Amino acid sequence: MDDQHPDFGLTLRSGPPPTPATGAWANLAHVARHPDDTVANADELARAINSSAHAYQIGHRIYAVIKHAVEESPATADLAHREHDRASRLIVGLKPDVLTTAIASQPDFGDRMRTLSGAVNIVTPAAVRALALAAAPAYQQPASAVLTGLLRKLEMEVATFNDAARTQADTAFRNLVHQLIRAWSSANVETTASAYDHMFQDQDELDPDTDVTPEPERVVSLALETGAVGSVLWTAVAALSEGEDLRRLIGMLKDAPKDSRAAEMIAQQFANPQRLTQLLREDPVDFEVVDALLQPMKLAAGETLLNELIRSNQRAVRRGIIERVATLGPGLEPMIIERLKDERWFVLRNMLHVMNESGSPTTRVPVAEYQTHADPRVRREAMQLQFKDPIARDRALATAFKESDPALLRVALKAARGGLPDAAVPILAKRILESDFPPEFRIPAIQLLGRSKSLLALDSVLKYVSGGTTMLGKPKLAAKTPEMVAALKGLSRTWSNERRAKVLLELALASNDPNIVAAAQATSEPSKDVDDDGIE
Amino acid sequence: MTESNSPNDAAPALSAPLDAEPDLRYSEEVDAITWLLDEVRSGRALPVVEAEAVAHSIFVSMRSNGQTTLRLRSLADMREYGSVHALNVAMLSMGLAEQLGFDHSAVREIGLAGLLSDIGMVRLPVDLIAKSEQLEPAERELIKTHPAEGARIIVDAQTALPLAAVVAFEHHLRMDGTGYPELRYPRVPHRISRLVQICDTYHALRSPRPFRQAWPNDVIFSFLQQRAGSDFDPDMATRLIALVAMHEH
Fold first, then answer.
1. A518: part of which helix (H) or strand (E)?
2. Residue B187 touches partner A, C-beta closer than 8 Å
């Protein structure tokens, strides 16, 4: 503090300890260089302040006096009346811009609103008007001539109405100024839609007969129908952000006009990762609601969906998530790559599965590494990805046929329907003869070999059809088995002109068994029975 | 204004023309409303605090002798129609709200909703509003945009006036949700929308317009009664008729 500051050398007069208000008045009188620090005459003090060189520097002292007048509880009604009158005189007597400076000296809008509202309750109507007009510029909301005129009129009416009308007029006048202060305060504090999130919380039950507040759904409907967006809408949206209400809100959004600005903004307002997480952890998950949330979020939902995919232990939820995350497109790849650093098998399986479902390019993911993973579930996903890669497919299939895991073999056999690579033929031919080859896959495997034009495949198929030779040295058919019939069909379709096959096919055509005859007559057209080969 | 609810615009001359003597009641409020409308018309945001001040001022003035008095301001100049209509709809709405037992705070809120119910008209061409001939179909369609425009003006003001926004939007809807504007989300109009609607209709018919003279009360009452239950809330219609009749006497 320097010597020129009005607070310098502040001392209170001797005597009994002052009440806070007394202290505040005395402080104000002192800094205003007013001789009477008891401030018996507030008009004089106001004049002294107005003419003081420090009038605009002591705003906080003036504010303190008003605040103490609001907070003080004098012992008797008479004392209270006198104190309120004194505060009113000061407020009315101050130059408006000095009073504005005093109000603006309190940077805490909450404190400012409480003090002003409290003052509006206790000061005279003239002081109420003075406070309102001084508060407006303090909130950067200058009062228009219209507002000034109406406040003056209301103040006059309070003064001139008869007793019966005065009370109502006085209440309405003060109520208006309360509303103004609240509005100005809100305009300064609540500038974003998110500021309305707290609204409607802890609100008392509304009486439907006397409450006129429109239902939030009605307000949202209006906004969606008109495209209007403002605080009214955000309040309503905040009230519809939980449970069933949220479902209704989402239902409304789904029916909104396609180009609705309000719908887009509402969706952006409440469609966020936190809310998506919340919905995905509900039991059961309502994917209809989730879908409405995903629509505006698009790729921004990727991280949450992948995290919940990893987290969820419910198959239906995982399936639902995968269906949705798979539609997010190539932008998902970096998120998947990040999660592939996690070594847990189910994380790897899920990430590879998402890649499979989404059809995303796999160039940045070393899928081949996962084909030798210890867990067959990871290997299966990796192989499926490899099968889709034209370069890696043949080698992947060859590797896959060496697998003993039935699920993996099933996937490989299914993938091989699109064409059995030559490199895989000897492996498959050898595998079907091995004891650990699942019997249920033998026929599909023979069918695959039967369609291959590889000579190695032919040899393999012939083994199932040929029964060696008779005692007279003539070739004969093998005993009829499902494998034999499948192999015979393969010969008929693919090798009908091959010398060894031709001999066996002729024998089959001469058979008394209609099934064998039919198999030998199988055409070379692509078989329709591939879907009936037991591989799903 | 109540284009959809109004009877035939070519109705015979039924009542007195404009008041010969200027009516000076509520002059400050009328001036303030005119200023409000001009502000919005010129593209500025709705001055909400002034609108609230007007509603409070009307509320207080209606109680100048300790009792609620419904003395509608008469129309001395057709150019004042928008402001006087807003004032009188606000007054009628407050009177009706009070009769329905709403507390003073709600009464003022309803009055404000009545005051702003036709604010969307400022977005229409002035020539259209002042037109002395009957409106063409295309012009009628244009008039039908004013509820949505009004709602947008109020919502865009970034101040929480949900009731006023809803009333501005719904005050031409019928009981079954038909009328205008067309609703994407079918619903019955809000109770206060129905309240303001009947006040708006009454005052529109009671006022002289460039294309017809004012209707006398008995004809208006009959019209309201005929359409009560279809176009209008029957309870509101009954209460408004009683309210106007009581104050007329």
1. helix A514-520
2. yes
